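S2.1 Query sequence (Unconventional myosin-Ia)
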Amino acid sequence: MTLLEGSVGVEDLVLLEPLEQGSLLKNLQQRYEHKEIYTYIGNVLISVNPYQQLPIYGPEFIAKYRDYTFYELQPHIYALANVAYQSLRDRDRDQCILITGESGAGKTEASKLVMSYVAAVCGKGEQVNSVKEQLLQSNPVLEAFGNAKTIRNNNSSRFGKYMDIEFDFKGSPLGGVITNYLLEKSRVVKQLEGERNFHIFYQLLAGAEADLLKALKLERETRCYVYLNRKVSRVDGMDDASNFKAVQSAMAVIGFSEEEIQQVLEVTALVLKLGNVELADEFQANGVSASGIRDGRGIQEIGEMMGLNSEELEKALCSRTMKTAKENVVTALNVVQAQYARDALAKNIYSRLFNWIVNRINESIKVGTGEKKKVMGVLDIYGFEILEDNSFEQFVINYCNEKLQQVFIEMTLKEEQEEYEREGIPWTKVDYSDNGVICNLIEHNQRGILAMLDEECLRPGVVSDTTFLAKLNHLFSKHTHYESKVTQNAQRQYDHTMGLSSFRICHYAGKVTYNVNGFIDKNNDLLFRDLSQVMWKARHPLLQSLFPEGDPKQASLKRPPTAGAQFKSSVAILMKNLYSKNPNYIRCIKPNEHQQRGQFSSELVAIQTRYLGLLENVRVRRAGYAYRQGYRPFLERYRLLSRSTWPRWNGGDREGVEKVVGELSLSSEELAFGKTKIFIRSPKTLFHLEERRRRLRLQQLATLIQKTYRGWRCRTHYRLMRKSQILISAWFRGNMQKKRYGKIKASSLLIQAFVRGWKARKDYRKYFRSGAALTLANFIYKSITRKFLLGLKDNLPSTNILDKTWPAAPYKCFHTANQELWQLFYRWKCKKFRDRLSLKQVENLREKLCASELFKDKKASYPQSVPIPFRGDYIGLQGNPKLQKLKGGAEGPVLVAETVKKVNRGNGKTSSRILLLTKEHVILTDTKKSQAKTVIGLDSVAGVSVTSFKDGLFSLHLNEISSVGSKGDFLLVSEHVIELLTKMYRAVLDATQKQLPVTVTEDFSVRFKESSVAVKVTQGPERGRNGKLSCKKTGSRCLDVTV
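Output structure tokens follow.
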């Protein structure tokens, strides 16, 4: 019985002492601060919203609570759900779970937890799992279309929901039925500051694919729509895009077809687009004010999407047709009336769509009529509301809560009376505050407020909210629970908080002032017949089905029932349903207005406890006996207080309980013995029992247990020590003998070995030769050498000359030989490779080798030239007979033919030349005339200077004694400078048997007639990547070249 032992505060408020508002609040706050959010009032559960995820849910806790009774563990919503489910399954009693509380108190989450628990503990199987999944998946769909962000709650249910879950005789779910109450459809067209419209609008815009938005003719930005609050488009901790995917998935699981899902989204988009229809002032020919559509594009898009005639829709929005006995009269609407008609249409479409979704879910989860079934109902409905400005919605919500309070009081007293009668204890009448007079004030068929409101709505003549209030003032002028400005003035009372257009009702939870403005319109909830008929004419199947009254064949002049009458009828059916079931109550409380974890506002919680009537609940529960328990658990807990029953009792449970309380000398007025339970009147008596048990008897028993345990532990420890000592001694002695035997055996074997060796050497000494060791060593060496060479033969690497791998020597002694063999093998591979080459390939390789010797690691452009073969002819010499004549017939082939640029040493300008390199000459030719301008013998070339950059600049130095050299050196630019200089170097070597000096430098001089010019080459910002160079003459003897 954990509700008294080791708990934070009092777990059951029935045992609270003293029973006052202050102590009740203090107890709830103390438990809340220790994250104990659940508290009992008998079998009623109080839940305080923690605004955070607590680690007290999931499969582990479900398994824990399903195996215990209600009071055996700490208060939890699983315990209440378990009691309801077991009573339904085992006792065949229909159950209902009533979840009440104001917005933000956690009612929706509580209903989810109840459903998840029931789904977890009921039967298994493919069909059962499918039904459970459909029931659970109905929540996200209804939340998307029926929940919204309010000032008090980010996920507030804006409708009441009652779900009947139906089970078979085994306790497995078969299906269910959902009933919805009073959707707050005014939210569709208007929201308060800081609030949002229904979630589905934001989810659709945030989560729909681009193609879907295009098909629905919607924009992704919420600020594009008048019906959406532009200041509040997102909610912290809520991902609208992922929620939209979850809603689509849930609808598919429930059984919606793809066409139905698409049609639902289209109707939702229609509501958004209606808000963007702007109406403008117009005047008829007779000067009467009328209205019209400012921009017809929105109406046109609605018509295209829904299959509507846009002209008929515009006419229905801007005019109204009145049917008389003789004719139809068409009346133009002004802008205000047309806006009212537009908003009324949007609200009706959304409200009917929501009802259609509920009915469609019911079709999927309904149970066949022939099956016998048990029912568990879950009611998640608005809590009592007192706002700054209370209107028609708050009036009917509070009326519903009055009826629920009436059910609670009557059912609680009835349950108490039934238990007393079962146990054979006399029942005494309990005084309690009966709110039947308040319910009668509101719902009386002839003289109730709802009846007066309907009468005023149906009365011919001028009808307004003021006339309705006047009728109430006249009818209830002397009613004790009704107040208004008129009744106060009649009684000479002054109250500045009471307005002229207000009345006040003294509810069970406190006084609430209602503003009558809008009561008539909200109760009428009229939609012009013209709009219904236009909607019915739509070629959209779902939209057409929402307006059956628009069908001319079903047209009726009968006025539809008012909103108040419909709600009253729904509440009556709900009450009848609740009276037929065993009730279980969950009272949800909001700890603060800011949805912050850990904050507890005593003032706010005090108001809610008054709304919920918690103190009244405790008083009713404690009207007779505050505590009752079965004889067996009571005896098990308290038998240690009597020497007659401790430590063993062999008699009956009731006799044992009587022995215990008899020895404790408790007053007979405090106790009552039923057939199966003992009843204790005052919590003080129970606390007295607990005090004696905990502080006196438990302390004695704890000392006895400690003494016994210490003795047992010492005896056990001694026995283990003695047993261990014997075992250790035995092992030690055995080990010593084994070691001694081992030493004797080893000594004997050693002596035997020496003796046998001495005998063998003595008998065979004559056969030993002095060179035996050398012979054996040579044989072994040859063997491993042979093995090494044969292994090397089988593991030779490939014959690719680039493959320089070689097997490692198995022994160090073969390391040198292994290296020599590798060198021989590699040279053999190279020779084989050279033997396969043609003469042209050999010549190319020799040229590449020469280029490497000249320019490797010296000139930056060398690495790029390595993979490119030397072509020689870059100007198409074979196709130019004129150029072929220039080389002469006896000099053999042209080694290089390309276009170069000659740098003028005087001014630095360049001009194109054709350069031909033969085996004996260098010929420079004009590119246009194809005539030899300069012929330089290779014996006249004294050297070459080239830079280390990527440029093609080089200087051709000539001997001064030659005829050409007298004019000076040549400064040229070649795109193939590596190939040109390599072949020139080889041609000079072949012609003169001398090596041509090739100097790599950035500073050199060239002769110019009888003087010299210093050339300085620098690298520009492009670092020679674009191939361009610029020459600039500085002074008379200096030339700066930038590459």
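The first helix runs from residue 21 to 33. The chain has a mean pLDDT of 85.
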